[in-house]
Amino acid sequence: IQNAELGKRAPRWIRDNEVTMCMKCKEPFNALTRRRHHCRACGHVVCWKCSDYKAHLEYDGNKLNKVCKDCYHVIIGCTDSEEKKKKGILEIESAEVSGNSVICSFLQYMEKSKPWQKAWCVIPKQEALVLYMYGAPQDVKALATIPLLGYTVDDTPRSADLPHSFKLTQSKSVHSFAADNEELKQKWLKVIHLAVKGETPECQNELQVN
């Protein structure tokens, strides 16, 4: 919803399982902070600290509703200077880059000897040489980024790896990924083989993986 429409019509609610962190302060949801709240103005999932505001919403008969800090400031008409702070490299919203990406999908990810974990991986069109990793598709901050230029690609899985896996190595850093199937693995490799050489794919739209 655009700022002008906040409170005037009901938002689309982001589902709880689409995020692993508060969409405002980026605090991870865990056993201690598992209470998730929805802002009644923008529909974002926020933690209790960020939902501690109330505003009159037109679409709900001007009743007082729980809203997040950002919507509160917009609705009552005061601007928040924090908004103007430049976003750090990791603070690019997943939905923003996924919607305009060369390729995006869930992949299993393993670093060093840690266990495999599921990550939402995105290579944005604006930065087709960087792989962004998120905990979930609607997260507002990336867990990590890997600048792909100069990496070596090894796509032969070892017996301990998942079947459709591949590795990216550069001196001492090794990142292992695994796709759910061979077709998805090949789509990722097609893009990554170009990116490690500093090239970008021509037919970007064909690689959208939902």
UniProtKB/TrEMBL annotation:
Residues 17-67 form the B box-type domain. Coiled coil: none annotated. SMART domains: FYVE, PH. Keywords: Cytoplasm, Cytoskeleton, Guanine-nucleotide releasing factor, Metal-binding, Phosphoprotein, Repeat, Zinc, Zinc-finger. It is found in: Cytoplasm, Cytoskeleton. Transmembrane segments: none annotated. The keyword Iron does not apply. Residues 100-197 form the PH domain. One of its GO terms (biological process) is cytoskeleton organization. Residues 16-72 form the FYVE-type domain. InterPro entries: FGD1-4_PH2, FYVE_RhoGEF_PH, PH-like_dom_sf, PH_domain, Znf_B-box, Znf_FYVE, Znf_FYVE-rel, Znf_RING/FYVE/PHD. GO terms for molecular function: guanyl-nucleotide exchange factor activity; zinc ion binding. It comes from the Eukaryota. GO terms for cellular component: cytoplasm; cytoskeleton. SUPFAM superfamilies: PH domain-like (SSF50729). This is FGD4 protein.
